[in-house]
Amino acid sequence: MRHTPRFLMTDPDDVRRLVRENPWATFVSPASTGLVASHYPVMVEDGDDITIVSHFGRPDETLHELGQHEILVIVQGPHDYVSPSWYAPGDLVPTWNHVTAHLYGTPELLSNDENYAVLTRLTDHFEHGRPGGRSLDEDEEGTRRIARGTVGLRLRVTRFDARAKLSQNKQPDVAQHVIAQLEPTNPALADEMRRVHGS
After folding, report:
1. Is 187 part of any domain?
2. Rounded to two decimals, what is the model's pTM?
């Protein structure tokens, strides 16, 4: 990512929160055949380190050569265009506010049983609170058979590069005006801005 010290996110807890609230991730691998990208849901595991778990549908794990090298996982939080019309007269340059994290590490492939446990946790997590929510446990034999078409992974993040670009370079009154403009159409981004601007 562009080197912008003013917008750096350095607190691992902020990165964990970003992943928890935005669990659809992009996985990028420098495979021997060239760059490969795939998209899968992720979950953050409890612990001191940032560790995420996920699964790949076969044959993506082969295309990515999982476990053989470091990969990049991109997590994109709320983002939106910021119009210069929201600034003072004469300020003509638009921008894009966003919260983004790049996570790096070499994934560990999970055993079939560990993978099934992760798939069960992922499903339970996303089904929780839904009317008529389902669980893989309802048909363990059948869902274990289907799970064989996936490969589970655990990624202990060895380094991350994260940005929360949220109008920190603007005067407080301008930032508040941007928040007010975003609120009706992108309340999640407005909330992220409130978090850094203390409002």
Report:
1. no
2. 0.94
d(Cα 111, Cα 144) in Å, to the nearest integer? Answer: 13
The answer to whether position 32 is within a domain reads yes
* DSSP notation for 180-195: HHHTTT-HHHHHHHHH
Rounded Cα distance, 41 and 140, in Å: 21
What are 34-90's pLDDT values in tens digits? 999 999 999 999 999 999 999 999 999 999 999 999 999 999 999 999 999 999 888
Domain of residue 20, residue span = 5-77+95-167
**Pair of tokens at residue 41:** 């849901």
Question: Model confidence over 131-155: pLDDT tens digits?
Answer: 999 999 999 999 999 999 999 999 9
Q: What angle do CA 136, 138, 139 make, to 5 degrees?
A: 80
